[in-house]
Specification:
- Helix 1 (2-9) packs antiparallel against helix 2 (14-37), helix 2 (14-37) packs antiparallel against helix 4 (60-78) and helix 7 (117-129) packs antiparallel against helix 8.
- The chain has helices spanning 2-9, 14-37, 41-52, 60-78, 83-95, 99-112, 117-129, 133-146, 151-175.
- Mean pLDDT is 88; it is low at 42-54.
- The chain has 176 residues and is mainly α.
- It has nine helices and no strands.
- 32% of the residues are buried.
- The longest helix is centred in the C-terminal third of the chain and has 25 residues, at 151-175.
């Protein structure tokens, strides 16, 4: 409700739209879990709902993230040196699984602030999603170099290295 009020006061608050999307996503995920665990009646209701809606309706979370993206894009168009907005734009794209756009935005944030471990970590994560393991490894090593206590970057680095091994192994199997 607080984010809705903030948006009502100023519709151009990108962070409020983003955080509203996060809040909606948590509520929607919780509702999915409840529906999955309740027997019979809820299942029948949800089946009727899905039959009625031929077009899949966008979730409130997706709408909020799309609104955040629109505003962040306006902000970075006006100020192309706004690393925070590029970072948040990338995070919003990531929430919508628009990975290539997330990569571009996060790459811009990293270029503007290469010594920001949080940016490097997020950039590395999206590169893993895109199976760009060599680049992910570089970004995550940089994140750890910046902050030796960055456990998230360490975990992601392990994932990137495992992904690289799988790709290398597969390539070796094909060539033999």
């Amino acid at each position: 409700e607080a984010y809705k009020q903030a948006i009502a006061l100023n519709a151009d608050l990108a962070e409020a739209h983003f955080q509203l999307g996060v809040a909606y996503a948590l509520v929607e995920k919780e509702e999915e879990v409840v529906e999955d665990k309740l027997p019979g009646e809820v299942e029948e209701i949800s089946n009727k709902k899905s039959k009625k809606s031929v077009k899949e309706k966008k979730s409130n979370a997706d709408i909020a993230f799309e609104n955040a993206i629109k505003i962040y894009k306006k902000i970075v168009a006006k100020n192309p040196k706004d690393d925070v907005s590029f970072y948040n734009l990338g995070r919003a794209y990531n929430k919508l699984d628009e990975d290539e756009d997330a990569q571009k935005a996060l790459q811009s944030a990293v270029k503007l602030q290469p010594e920001n471990g949080e940016y490097q970590t997020e950039f590395g994560m999206i590169l893993i999603k895109l199976a760009q393991y060599d680049e992910a490894i570089r970004a995550l090593k940089k994140a750890i170099e910046i902050d030796k206590t960055n456990l998230r970057a360490e975990e992601l680095l392990e994932q990137a290295q495992a992904g690289k091994k799988r790709v290398d192994f597969g390539a070796n199997m094909i060539s033999t």
